[in-house]
Amino acid sequence: MIKVESLTKRYGGFTAVDDVTFTARAGRVTGFLGPNGAGKSTTMRIMVGLTPASSGIAEVSGRRFADLPNPGLEVGVLLDASAQHAGRTGREILTIAQRTMGLPARRVDEMLDRVSLTPSEAGRRVRNYSLGMRQRLGIATALLGDPEVLILDEPANGLDPAGIRWMRDLLRGYADQGGTVLLSSHLLHEIEVIADDLVVIGQGRIVAQGTKAELLAAAGTLVRTRDVPTLARALVDADLEFSQTTDALRVDADPDVVGDLALAAGVALTELRAADGAGLEEMFLELTSETQRESIREGAAA
Amino acid sequence: MTATTVDTVDPQVVRTARPTPARIPTTRILAVELRKSFDTRSGFWLMASIAILSVVATGATILFAPDSELDYEAFATAIGFPMAVILPIIAALSVTSEWSQRTGLTSFTLVPHRSRVIGAKLAVTIGVGVVSMLLAAAIGAVGNVVGTAITGTDTIWNVSATELSYIVLGNVLGMLVGFMLGVLLRNSAGAIVGYFVYGFALPPLTFLLAQSQEWFEKAQPWVDFNFAQGNLFNGSMSGDQWAQLGVTTLVWLVIPLVVGLRMVLRSEVK
């Protein structure tokens, strides 16, 4: 289990992590979602003691990271797959970790096998690795001590579709055996397919958290019609909250309510369905748009 | 590379509460740090270069030194120069590579107490330095025997054990300067340049200053670390010289090292 309480990190006047509180539970995959620069990596670095917090607590398995006697056996950490000495071979990097943790040498081969790095690949220097291979090596290092908790920062970066599927299955299996998995991503779809719980962060603050089912259920209804103004008037009259995307409305109500309303207003619908995740996606886009460098395309926001 | 699925993974049952693991023993951290100083191509060749350059310097002494001056001191001096260059670089890189190569992200999460990792590096650095110098001294001794056999002159052992221990101490201090710069700058290029400025660019300047300014000539033994260190290589140390060495070591090595260590313990590892 990972517990983070009122975690704050300030750099001068800039607050990178602002009063962040959440729990990643055992047996579940917790997705840590946010646009680039939202504070995900900083939060994760604080968890493992690489960055001192300005205030607040981060605990792993009920203890501060620094109080873990042999952290590699309790927490598998992958913060940046490229942060390795380019001149070491993959096998050597695993061997260093294996020796530090005090594990038998055969664990190195077991892990290489588990992340599908061949012996010849393992004998190559990391400078010649693709990003995908580095990610696999990083995962191998994290899994080496058979820890109960995994903290992974953007582990799917650089993996091909088969690799992402492999990663998903691996982490799923890990959580199903009772492990705690916390992984970050800036891609909603990547995290949607694997996470049980979601923690969404933007500009250092948590903007939403809960189980994936809860967050998706809160999404409401997606409705399409050629006569948007009439339907919009009917929704306003019925006191329903809604928002408009390019050619559809998203309504904070169940589909049958919206259907009845459309019938009463005499509006023909072209589509009516539960907006799975659309709410989450919208929220995420909003978050991103505040920080993104490109201006929003016209028509995207009405 | 093929993707495997979870089915191929060893079947495990749901985790049960596990006993708390034992604390990582210091001997293990030392062993790992020692391994880390040899296991890259650059690290390996830096270490190998100590032996190689000792042999080269020994050979050069046999070839080029006049027969009358072919004694152990000549070999010790010849070998001493490459040592004074390489050992501090090894010391600096052992620290800076954790930042420059960003391996600190792994090192400091596997051992969450940076003081233990840095302490192990310091111990390994000094150990490597002492062993290297003994190795170099042995190579020099072989050179002395072989060289004088070739020239047919007497084999002269004019470096005493005390003098040898002074040389070792002097080189260890040089290594510690490299280590200190590594800790303080946490950047490989910066630390190496810093060492060359300190070790090779500064001495001629202070020499000139001492020649032209009387006040500095008087003050130099007490403020110039290089100068105070240099006495160790001259074979004998007076009480005053020890005191000068102590004062300059404190100011130019111990204090910056402490400042650097505090920064290392508190800084962010990215």
Model description:
With 302 residues, chain A is α/β, with parallel strands linked by helices. Chain A has two domains: 2-210, Rossmann fold; 220-275, UreE, C-terminal domain (Alpha-Beta Plaits), CATH 3.30.70.790. Chain A is built from eleven helices and 13 strands. Chain A has helices at residues 40-47, 90-101, 106-114, 119-122, 131-143, 161-176, 188-192, 212-217, 228-237, 255-265, 278-291; strands at 2-11, 14-24, 29-33, 55-60, 75-78, 149-152, 180-185, 197-202, 205-211, 221-225, 242-244, 249-251, 269-274. A six-stranded mixed sheet of chain A has the order 5-6-7-3-8-9, sandwiched between helices. A four-stranded antiparallel sheet of chain A has the order 11-12-10-13, covered by helices on one side. In chain A, helix 2 (90-101) runs parallel beside helix 5. Chain A starts with a strand and ends in an 11-residue tail after the last helix. With 270 residues, chain B is mostly helical. Chain B contains ten helices and no strands. Chain B has helices at 26-36, 41-64, 72-100, 104-110, 114-151, 161-185, 188-212, 214-223, 225-230, 239-266. In chain B, helix 3 packs antiparallel against helix 5 and helix 6 (161-185) packs parallel to helix 10 (239-266). The radius of gyration of chain B is 23 Å and the shape is globular. The two termini of chain B are 30 Å apart. In chain B, 36% of the residues are buried. The chains are: A alpha/beta (302), B mainly alpha (270). At the A-B interface, helix 2, helix 5 and helix 6 of A face helix 1, helix 2 and helix 4 of B.
Q: Helix count of chain A?
A: 11
**Looking at this structure, what is the CATH superfamily of the largest domain in chain A?**
P-loop containing nucleotide triphosphate hydrolases
Low-confidence stretches of chain B: 1-13
Oligomer: heterodimer
> Would you tell me the overall average pLDDT of chain A?
88
- Morphology call of chain B: globular
Percent of residues in helices of chain A comes to 25-40%
